[in-house]
Amino acid sequence: MSKRAASRQGFCMRDFSLRRLLGGIPPSTFLAEYWQKRPLLVRQALPGFGDWLDRDGLSALACRDDAESRLVRHQRGRWRLDHGPFAREELDALPARGWSLLVSGVNHLLPEGDRLLHAFDFVPHARLDDLMVSFAPDGGGVGPHFDSYDVFLIQGLGRRRWEIGGQDDLALVEGAPLRILRNFRAEQSWELEPGDILYLPPRFAHNGVALGDCMTWSVGFRAPKAQEIVGEFLNHLQDTLDIPGMYADPALRQPRHPARLPDELVDWAAGVVDSLRWGRADIVDFLGRYLSEPKAHVFFEPPTRPLSPATFARRVAVTGVALDARSRCLFSVRTFFMNGERVEAAPALLPALRQLADHRRLPPGEYAQSLLALLHAWYAAGYLRATPAHG
Ligand code: SIN
Ligand code: CO
Question: Nearest CA to 7 among 58, 49, 57?
C-alpha cells in the first residue's frame, strides 16, 4: 500500500466522534451554549487532519464542471472574483501570493468529505449544507467578512491565523465583487494548526490569513430566508394547484370608460385568491421537496447496466446500501423526500427507511420485497448504491 493510500486509510478510521470534534463538550451543551451564540475554538479535534487533499488535488477538483469553484484574487489593493471550472494551466500559473482557491460541495466529490460532513449531523440534515475546501499561499485569504450561516472552520494542511470580532458594524466595502467588511476590528486572534477547529455563529466577523501554504475545510450550514420560503412556496402552489373556474360577465353593461378595470372583475379575482387554503401538510410537502432538492450543478449517475431487481436484492443481503454522497433524504412522520421526490411509506417500512435517512446507509440484510422495490428504484436513479459504505 502506498504511503498516501495508507494515510487515507488511517484517516478513514479516524475518530470522528462528536465529543472529539466539539472538544469534549457534549453536543447538548454545545447547542445550548455556543450554537448560534458564540465562537468556540477546539485545539486538536482531528490531530494530523488534512492529508486527503493538497493544492494539486484541490486544483483538479476546481477544473471539474460538477464542482462549484471560485478564485479570489487580491492584488494591488483590488479584489477580483472568478468562477470555475478553471483550466489547470491557469491554476498552476498563479503567483506566489495574493489569491485563494475555494471549492464547494467537496462532500460530493470525496467519499471522506461526505463522512466528515455527516459527522456534524447532531444538527438536522435539513440545516446541513456542504463542505468547502480552500487553498491559499502565504498571506492569502478571502478578506475580513461575515457569513450568514454557522460554520466550523477545520484547519487542514498548513497554518492559518484567524482574527475574529463580534462587531455590529457589518458595512461592506462598496463595489467589491465579494463581501469585504469596511471596518473590521479583531477582538481575538489564534494561529490554527492542522486538526484545530474554530466554530463561528452566523454574522460573526472573521478574517483568515494563510501562514505559508494553507488549506481550510469549512462545514457549512443552511437556513432558509423568509423571502425565499415565500417565493418558493408560491412556485410550489403554482405547480401543484389546479383551480377550476373562469370569469364570466353575462350581466355586462356598457362601461363609460372602457379602459377602467371592472369592479366585478377585481372582486372576482380577490375572491379566487382569498379562497386559497393550505395547511401544515402542504407546508411539510413543500419544505421536504424544496430542502431535499439537489443544487443546480448536481447530476446523478444512474448505473449504466443496472442490476435486475432479483440480483440487486441478493447484493443488498450481502453489502447493504449506502446513499450516494449527492443524495439528500429527509422525512416527516411517514413521508420521505429523496432528492426532491416524495414517497409515502407503509408503516412496516418506516424503521428501515428512517435508518437509511438518518445514517445514510442500511446494513446487509433480508429486507421486505416492497422496501427492496423502492430501494431498487432509487438505485436505478443513481440515488444509492448496493455497496458497503465507506469508512
Ligand atoms: C476560507 O477558507 O478561506 C474561507 C472560509 C471562511 O471564512 O468562511
Ligand atoms: Co467566512
Answer: 49
Check whether residue 63 and residue 191 sit in a common domain. yes
Which residue, judged by its Cα, is nearest atom 3 of ligand 1? 141
Number of domains in the chain: 2
Ligand 2 being an ion, which residues bring their Cβ within 5 A of it? 147
Residue 290 lies in a domain: no
Residues 165, 313 within the same domain: no
Report if pTM > 0.85.
yes
Domain residues for 11? 3-221
pLDDT tens figures, 23-52: 999 999 999 999 999 999 999 999 889 889
Distance from the CA of 225 to the center of ligand 1, in angstroms? Answer: 22
CATH number at residue 44: 2.60.120.650
CA-nearest residue, atom 5 of ligand 1? 218
151 lines ligand 1 (CB under 6 A): yes
User: Residue 224 corresponds to which cell in the numbers above?
Assistant: 432558509
Residue 271 domain flag: no
Task: Average the pLDDT over each of 7-11, 49-53, 55-59, 137-141 and give the range with the smallest value.
Answer: 7-11
| Percent of the chain whose predicted confidence (pLDDT) is above 90 | 90
